[in-house]
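Quick start: load a record and inspect it. Here is Response regulator:
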Amino acid sequence: MSIKVIIVEDEPRVRKGLAEAIDWPLFGMELIGTAANGLEGLELFRLHRPELVVADIRMPVMDGLAMTEAILEIQPHTKVIIISGHDEFTYAQKCISLGVTNYLLKPIGKKRFHTELDKVREELQADLQRQAKSLEWEQKLKSSLPVLRNAFLEEWLNGAAPTGEDTLRESFSFLNIPYEWDMEAAVAIFEMDGKEGLSSGDGRLLEFAMNNVIGELLGDSGIAYQRGNGQTVVIYQSFSSDLAEDLSLWAEQARVKINSLLKISLTAAVSAESVHAAELPRIFKETIGLLRLKLSLGTNTILHKSLVQPEQNPFALLNPSDEILLVQHVEMNDEAEIARMMEELFGQWKESGSLAYADEWSFQLAGIFTGLAHRLGKSVRSFVNDEQMEKWRHPEQFRTLEEMMSWWRQLYIELSKSYEGFRTDRKTKIIQQVMDYVDEYIYENITREDAAQHVYINSSYLSRMFKKVTGESFSDFVIRKKMEKAIHLLQVERVMVYEVADRLGYKDPSYFARVFKKYTGKSPSDFQE
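Running the structure step on this input writes:
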């Protein structure tokens, strides 16, 4: 792209000489106009916005310095070459203050002027490279903002980020996190209940969809972000006189809505109070603790501090005979009895309702498991990976009592089988829903975005998941289903070709025929013979 140039000079001879004597294209430049004074030059600049202005200083109506000052206010990156017949220090000083470094005295030799043009071209190219680099970093930052925002909020609420208000304000502003600093806020944490029967991919997809729906329902009333464990955290702000109560009502409405949309059960814990920003990490930790109540109080509900009951018993103890039986079942690799016993023990504990918190129960099972692993001459780490070790050490991470029971049952069975795997993969339910959607709306113009919206996930994420699960791209799948439907309409229902094309969303029958032949190897009419 050529560098646009204008010349502003009141002497006609000099103006014409500069315009005609210079081979502008040689320098990658295009002369787009000349002007006889500063005012005309400013108007010409406003009209064309050139990258380079060559101007005299002393001119009628408006001098070159006043024009240059006005131009640089409009477009600061403009390059200006000042030419003057007066070697006066005040002029040079003014040019320097304006940021003009190209100051030439008349008469100007052609070689010297060429040198200046080369210099300007190099400066503009360097400016363009810097702008491109800056734009590239800006785009990278924008694409990374959601991840950076989530990471910052997680660190801050867990006390791992600076908490001074000035520093927080700067971080929130940089990451474009909306927050009303003069208002109090309350915290809610949403968690999907139970993942039994779901693959890890299914669970993550549903948690992602849950987070998206919560964000939409929240609107401008606060901040929502997804934690690494799939929970969605809401920092809630409104003009309510009782913010905590208002949050409880909103959380219940959100729970019911998500139940209806995603067909999943979820539990939310809400803070008992609203506080200013400095206190949010404290009530966040308290709210995390409230989620442990679901193990004893049940799921698919809203949990708050008033539900905490005094503990009647500090531990839920296994009696000696139960412990002996469990050890025997493991040593004899009796999977059925291990499963039955786990279900029976957890069922008895749930019915007793003697504890508000169930993590002590998990620690007892961990002790028995450790002894059994050592009897086999192995360490616990031989059976428990890093991800599992997190729940081993922090049983409050279990979502439900049923999840805890299922986790320990599986771990004990794996121990008894000594590394023999027994889990099998299952088809992703989300992808099956998408396939059903395509079948249902086969006569419509089906897009990837429509299908993604149907299952409440990102369209790009759907494409990757669809290809991974089926081995076929989403668009190829849609075309295949449409062509299969077309064959049925042509062969079985004997529908005319143009009507088949119209039914399946192809407005141009000839384009439909080309797609059909590419897929089947035959023309549509061949299927009607």
